[in-house]
Fold this sequence. Notes:
Two copies of one chain form a homodimer. By secondary structure, the first copy, chain A, is α+β, with helices and mostly antiparallel strands. Chain A is 37% helix and 32% strand. Chain A contains six helices and ten strands, in the order H-H-E-E-E-E-E-E-H-E-E-H-E-H-E-H. Chains A and B meet through strand 3, strand 4, strand 5 and helix 3 of A and strand 3, strand 4, strand 5 and helix 3 of B. Strand 3 of chain A pairs antiparallel with strand 3 (62-70) of chain B, so a sheet runs across the interface.
Amino acid sequence: MQYPNNIKKEFTKLSVSHSNRGMNLESALNSSNEYYLRKDIALIYKKPTPIGIVDVSYKNHKKTIEKAYFKEQSTLDYNGLYNGKYIEFDAKETLNKTSFPLSNVHEHQTIQIRNVIKHGGIVFLIIRMNNINYLLTGEDYIHYIDTEKRKSISYDYIKEKAYIIKEAYQPQLDYLKIVDKIYFKGE
Amino acid sequence: MQYPNNIKKEFTKLSVSHSNRGMNLESALNSSNEYYLRKDIALIYKKPTPIGIVDVSYKNHKKTIEKAYFKEQSTLDYNGLYNGKYIEFDAKETLNKTSFPLSNVHEHQTIQIRNVIKHGGIVFLIIRMNNINYLLTGEDYIHYIDTEKRKSISYDYIKEKAYIIKEAYQPQLDYLKIVDKIYFKGE
């Protein structure tokens, strides 16, 4: 099949632009976590999405789910162990260019962030915004929502407080480098 | 409907014996974890069982799973944060009275136990056997499988090394009391 020249170009452009943007945030984090595991750096996993099972069937001793629905996670999506410390975080993407809408963070997730801080764990959000990946600490997140009482976090606050996680080949998002910088400074 | 006397008695006996045995281990642990959360003692959750989705449908903007199957967890089932420390464990029940069959612990779970120890976390198994709940540390578990090379852990080893978690009203299984004793002795 032959395409007119202008369509061919469009295809090429799209494909290049897509590869520049890289995978979506979740895939990038999953592949980074697999890298950390393989290299014996950290044990960090994405929790499976909880489901409510409506109906199951049994066939040849195998249980199959015939109907179910997605439920909300009570915690953040990722947690694990790094350098003897408990780590928990969530990944959020927004197409909004000027502010991060707080509707992206559910109320129980904000409670969980407060709880992890209180119990001595490391907790943060990884926010992809304007094609940049930011790590915003739980402490800076809580400080903002407690003092600003707004429905979104301004991009200025994110640029001021959050740390940029640069994309690379392996691991694709080396967020533990930022964790080292923030939480293990003296070590 | 009237039952002959002997059947009635049998029913009563069964029902009493069931209530004495208490809930199954998973329910007891979930209710204990809810207690720890409510009382602000620890943040420990059972991970959702991972599933492989085969088919979904959309109706009124709601996504429903139409077919899926259960997958194996890569980690132990429970993890969280207690007293600034990472905790991970799994719950195992056996009806075997003289030994704990190692087929209850999947190979990737044993790898995970080794990994958590290596990265400085707290890891253990809670084993219900002969109606008693035992906490066996990851270290004692690994020591046994590395030195004994057997297909089960003898009940004698469990009685010697593991700690008994007594059942109570609230929390039903206060396993963190044992964790305090083992891992926070000096504090």
